[in-house]
Amino acid sequence: MTPPIPERHTAFFNLFDALAENGCALCRLAAKAAHDSLDSLLYENVNDPGTRQALSASHGFCVAHAELATHMSDALGVAMLYETLCREAANRVARELPMGATQPCPICCAAADVNERYLAEFCLRIGESDFHERFLASDGFCLPHFQRVITMVHDKATGGIVRAHEAKTLLALADQLHVFVKKHDYKRESDFAAEGASWLRALEKFVGKTK
Fold first, then answer.
1. Terminal-to-terminal C-alpha distance of the chain
2. Buried b / exposed e across 133-170, counting CB within 10 Å, b at 16+?
3. Is residue 114 within a helix (H) or strand (E), and if so which, with residue range?
4. pLDDT of res. 189
5. I need a surface site. Which of 40, 141, 161, 165 has the fewest CB within 10 A?
6. Which pTM value belongs to this model?
């Protein structure tokens, strides 16, 4: 007997929609999670003791999320958090104590938690026909997310489908890069079609995208 299809909730629909967008759907969802987490932290949790303790342990945000914070239109929230961090750092410097972070960036942790949820959702849904078709019409994953998906897919046939689609998207991207290189000597930037941004997509394909 065919097992019942699990009920669809927000995670399914978010992932389904993200697969229709350009690039890696999991990167897109992780970036949104990071943005929402940072937004919530700066607007609602600046004075939360747990938040401050986590940022103290991580020595503030990582490079990527510190840069994201500059676009959040909340200089006051950042200033309040980093005043404390600066005082703590000054104290450690004066006492000749080590400065290394003991915990990862809390925004990274929040994005990673969401990422795991969507990875699990993908593995749960890839056998459903409409989701399967949406995936095969997508740009596939960045290579870091592809590696994570492959480690989580236990069905050999499903793993073969994911691998085949990833190889197909990589070859299509390679073809666009080839066209870009060939045209570059005699075409203006405005004359390029889809291959014009292929070099950016190649960078994202290999390392993912954080925003």
1. 43
2. ebbeebbbbbbebbebbeeebeeeebbebbeebbeebb
3. helix 106-125
4. 56
5. 40
6. 0.86
pLDDT digit string, tens, across residues 78-112:
999 999 999 999 999 999 888 888 899 999 999 99
User: In angstroms, rounded to a whole number, what is the distance separating the alpha carbons of residues 14 and 8?
Assistant: 11
The phi, psi pair for 54, rounded to 5°, reads -65, -40
- pLDDT tens figures, 28-75: 999 999 999 999 999 888 899 999 999 999 999 999 999 999 998 889
Q: How far apart are CA 172 and CA 21, in angstroms?
A: 17
Separation CA 199–CA 197 (nearest Å): 6
CA 187 to each of CA 43, 176, 181, 190, 197: distance values in angstroms, whole numbers, following the listed order: 47, 15, 10, 8, 14
| Tokens at 9, concatenated | 């909730």
